[in-house]
Amino acid sequence: MTTSGSSAEALIRLREVHKVYHMGSTDVHALAGVSMEIMPGEFVSITGASGSGKSTMMGILGCLDRPTKGDYYFDGQPAGALSDRQLAHTRNQSIGFVFQTFNLLPRTSARDNVAVPLFYARKVRTHHDALEALEMVGLADRAHHAPSELSGGERQRVAIARAIVNHPKLLLADEPTGNLDTHTGAQIMMIFHQLHQRGVTVVLVTHEPDIATQAQRIIQMRDGKIIHDGPVEPDRRAQAMESTRVLAQQKRNRESVGT
Questions:
Q1: What global pTM score does this model have?
Q2: How big, in percent rounded to 5, are the helix, strand and coil portions of the chain?
């Protein structure tokens, strides 16, 4: 997965990427020479303890930050050569973001929250496309509800709909189940699996082993370096995904009884 022969096809390619933050008289090396590739259609988990560099890595992968040194190629384009406006365009058109804290506009309906990337892209069919994205996450019937009227799991599903409304090539999720109970988190993971099956490249940051092993590949970080990068054993992945499927079904069953 990191061989040079696959470089021309990689959606993500990092080459000796460093990120240094200057904190007064101290330099903090958040990333220390990271090299790796992610192919289109992969499902990858990035794991590591707090301070390992995984969030910094996500910021660079999402074109939210630039490396101090080294090269980042996204979809064949050198991100370091792009202007701030070009990076913003890339984020809007090609990258979807899902955060642990949802980051929804509090006084705005679910539909209009999902439509935010469409407004920035100056698209005209915002309501139609937003409703279509909500339908994909099973929330079309909650389109006119404000975030305060939604459960935590529903808010995260709105956030996922917002992330996919522009049909991105890459979906970046930073601890997307961190604020959710186990059953609700399982529902969210099932949505990621469905998106992956449709061809979306998914990169997920998590500290939960049972979440990480549902990916095809795990990248483990420590002290700003990759210390492990390899595939998840198929039987182990299948077992983790089946456990998630069962938990999500139990959640649906309880919701059906409640209605």
A1: 0.90
A2: 45, 25, 30
